[in-house]
Amino acid sequence: MRIGIFSDQYYPIVSGVVTSIKMLYEGLEKMGHKCFIFTSLDLEGLEDDPEIKNKDIINFDGIHYPFPAAKSYKFTFKTRKCVKIIKQYNLDIIHIQSEFSISKIARTASKKLHIPIVHTMHTAWINYICTLFPKTDKIIHPFWVWVMKVLFTKPTYKASTIEILPTKKIIPDLKDYGIVGDDFEIMPTGIELDRFIKENFKEEDILKLKKDLDIENDFVFLFVGRTAPEKNIELLINGFAKAFKDTPNVKFLLVGGGPSLESLKKLAKDLEVDDKIIFTGLIDWKVVPIYYHLGNVFMNASITETQGLTYIEALSSGLPNIVKNDPCIDDVIIDGVNGYLFDNEEQFIEKIKYAFEHQDEIEKMKQNALESSSKFSKAEFAKHAYEIYEKAIEKYNNEHKKFDKKKNK
To answer: What pLDDT score was predicted for residue 167?
Structure first.
């Protein structure tokens, strides 16, 4: 099968969407299919990077959106020219991964070239919109949600034969995105689990990194991800400070960069725990896996995840999770088995204190964490995607046969 993956973002951007695309591409190629990524990138200096060089990437020209939080995205306007390029690849299926400019090109190509579309709804825009437009308020917020629906999500959904959701979490909000049908598939994103298993790393390299970060003798709570408002990291810092401000041999390691990094550092200083909270800043995603092995417990309080890929990465590294209760992790984190769930700061403090005071129990949970991550493998992800593609192609062909019969009567 010849598969076109369409996205407004790809490498070197670090995001769950990019991870999903990478896993999908590599998993499908291993199955023997041919994949192409259609996107708009800033490729200067990246031409020889393996993530670019070793994949079939078709890069369309465009100009950056003017919004600071969307600066990684481009508006691509030469739709007719793009469709001519797409035609050369003789695609069997189009898989749209984002709803912006590239989606419009994909929809036009589908209509002109008679190629079925599936679309993955990665982002819970109702929660994320405040990040794109940080000065929005309760009056303007509904307007931007309406704009997202009318200009982006609804047209993409209407053009799709099958809608894909990474988790059940989005279902209650589907109407707000203009999705009114019930023909959707739940398909959790795959993870390259082998990248995270401890056997891949030398013990001396882990110990050296711990020494460099001055955490070699500490119990370490770990966060990995973008330091951005929607990740709700303030709750983690506030709770950690209340629980362990005067407790020796316990640290909080935050791995990642983003727009909130400096304000989070200031918060740690204001709470007088800047000696116990370590910020690595942005880390190259290629070396991120080793950082999971510096922690004893993974923590997250995000409110906008649709699946929580870092949660699964942590599990595959053998790390129990302490994370905010959320529908996106209904089938990922099992309270008391591979981690603990909390609903508010008070519960969070209770859980992290319990983890620190019951380290033997945390140690026993590691095997449960590893075993629970196996269903999220890249191979399973690609296999599921292919089954959806086959279903979409069959449905699309049947619908068009009916249309053609009516047209010829």
So the answer is: 82
